[in-house]
């Protein structure tokens, strides 16, 4: 019989042996144990006769595929509907890379009093007084460029094809409007800077405008009179490519090399007090230069360009037209404004059988008289309200054919205006300049210049192309693996 102490020693030895062989549980062992458990669970689900686990995994796979397909469809829809994004350009553009803005000045005095005293003739017409045929024809012509509505007192006149010729004959002489001009810090003859232009406000004068050969299709235009008097060519500049290299500052259209008033345009304007007629003025939609005031206009350009990779998209997707994509009957240069003006002219002709004198027209189209002014105003109102859906089907089809999207590359100018009192009489009396010539006149001044030397342009870019779309799809499909990667980050063993 073994001694009683032997079993006790055997158990204590076994306990000591167990203590010596035990080690701390490490992260690697925990991970191995967890993976083993998952493998056992997968084997069980794959070989078990309980079919609910198989159905669960199949359902999860189907839901995952459906979710990925939905996300891919959203990305594809965004790619097809709005593939273009508008962003700021990578670097600023200097002002010498773009033309100086065109400036059109319309005189407040539309006719000299010795040619036509508008107020006197108006009073005779209203009261039934005697008016000569010549004065009456001139009076009817002047009404079309006045703000006040006089047609309720007048004989109905449907067409007035001689209207523009009368406006040209009655326009005040050029030298009676412009006193002095300074361009880029140098005195220049105003007649070398400004050319006559026909606008909805009558005969005006434009500085740095494009020539008729560059803007209009003369083969489609009537030959009764010229809308644009500028003859200089802009062959050294184009909207798409800018100025030709090494052309210098003598290129047309004119440009400046720096900002500030000394590098811009300054114009001194005058008006004879005897010719002022407050019954016939100009529209408030223009920038009005009050008498005895100095008006300052600082300009901030807005240039929008389009990347070449956007050209492959249709105009409806990129929401703009390149010049070769949109043909205009009367204009060589496509802009949204030219398109809208041509559309308005066509629609006015459709509704009224004539067009207003300042609109583009063919040789056989009449100019609307006073009896048609209400129809012209209604046509313009319908064109402005076409987005409200309040027009009939035939009119809607005609207006939809306009399709005046913005140009893919266009330039416009934002302005900041300030004015102050212009004590010109003290100035002329001090330096004894034109004292006698200005005894019965009022003066005002206009200064136009760039605000900054550079500006940030806006650029249309491709939101994402085919490669980006495929990469997005791959990213969506790989999100599940990414999640696993994030959860399976290796931990250092301690």
TrEMBL record:
Gene3D superfamilies assigned to the protein according to its UniProt record, in alphabetical order: Acid-sensing ion channel domain (1.10.287.820)
GO MF annotation: an example: ligand-gated sodium channel activity
Keyword terms of this UniProt record: Ion channel, Ion transport, Membrane, Sodium, Sodium channel, Sodium transport, Transmembrane, Transmembrane helix, Transport
Subcellular location: Membrane
Pfam families: ASC
Membrane topology (UniProt): Multi-pass membrane protein
Family annotation (InterPro entries): ENaC
Principal place of residence: membrane
Membrane-spanning segments: none
Any single Gene Ontology cellular-component annotation: plasma membrane
UniProt similarity note: Belongs to the amiloride-sensitive sodium channel (TC 1.A.6) family.
PANTHER family reported in the protein's UniProt record: AMILORIDE-SENSITIVE NA+ CHANNEL-RELATED, AMILORIDE-SENSITIVE SODIUM CHANNEL-RELATED
The name this protein goes by in its record: Pickpocket
Native source species: Anopheles merus (Mosquito)
């Amino acid at each position: 019989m073994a001694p009683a102490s032997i079993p006790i020693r055997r158990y204590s030895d076994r306990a000591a042996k167990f203590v010596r062989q035990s080690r701390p549980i490490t992260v690697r062992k925990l991970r191995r144990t967890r993976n083993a458990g998952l493998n056992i669970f997968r084997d069980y689900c794959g070989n078990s006769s309980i079919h609910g686990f198989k159905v669960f995994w199949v359902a999860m796979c189907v839901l995952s595929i459906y979710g990925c397909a939905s996300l891919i469809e959203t990305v594809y829809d965004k790619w097809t509907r709005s593939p273009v994004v508008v962003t700021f350009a990578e670097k600023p553009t200097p002002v010498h890379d773009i033309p100086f803005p065109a400036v059109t000045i319309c005189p407040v005095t539309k006719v000299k009093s010795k040619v036509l005293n508008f107020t006197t003739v108006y009073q005779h017409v209203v009261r039934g007084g005697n008016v000569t045929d010549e004065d009456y024809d001139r009076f009817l012509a002047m009404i079309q460029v006045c703000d006040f509505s006089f047609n309720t007192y007048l004989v109905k006149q449907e067409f007035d094809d001689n209207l523009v010729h009368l406006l040209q004959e009655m326009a005040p002489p050029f030298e009676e409007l412009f006193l002095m001009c300074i361009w880029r810090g140098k005195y220049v003859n105003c007649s070398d800077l400004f050319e006559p232009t026909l606008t909805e406000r009558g005969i005006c004068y434009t500085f740095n405008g494009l020539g008729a050969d560059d803007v209009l299709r003369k083969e489609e235009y009537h030959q009764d009179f010229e809308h644009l008097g500028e003859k200089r060519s802009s062959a050294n500049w184009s909207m798409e490519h800018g100025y030709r290299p090494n052309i210098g500052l003598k290129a047309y259209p004119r440009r400046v090399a720096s900002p500030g008033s000394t590098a811009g345009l300054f114009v001194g304007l005058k008006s004879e007090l005897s010719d002022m007629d407050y019954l016939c003025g100009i529209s408030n939609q223009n920038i009005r230069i009050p008498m005895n005031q100095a008006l300052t206009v600082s300009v901030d350009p807005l240039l929008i360009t389009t990347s070449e990779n956007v050209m492959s998209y249709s105009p409806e997707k990129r929401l703009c037209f390149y010049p070769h994509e949109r043909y205009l009957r009367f204009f060589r240069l496509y802009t949204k404004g030219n398109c809208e003006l041509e559309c308005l002219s066509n629609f006015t002709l459709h509704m009224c059988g004539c067009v207003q004198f300042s609109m583009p027209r063919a040789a056989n189209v009449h100019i609307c008289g006073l009896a048609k002014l209400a129809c012209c105003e209604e046509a313009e109102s319908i064109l402005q309200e076409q987005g409200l859906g309040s027009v009939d089907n035939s009119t809607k089809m005609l207006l939809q054919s306009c399709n005046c999207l913005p140009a893919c590359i266009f330039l416009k100018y934002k302005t900041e205006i300030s004015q102050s009192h212009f004590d010109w009489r003290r100035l002329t009396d001090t330096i004894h300049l034109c004292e006698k010539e200005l005894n019965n006149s009022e003066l005002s001044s206009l200064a136009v210049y760039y605000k900054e030397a550079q500006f940030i342009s806006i650029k249309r870019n491709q939101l994402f192309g085919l490669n980006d779309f495929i990469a997005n799809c791959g990213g969506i499909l790989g999100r599940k693996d990414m999640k696993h990667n994030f959860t399976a980050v290796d931990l250092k063993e301690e």
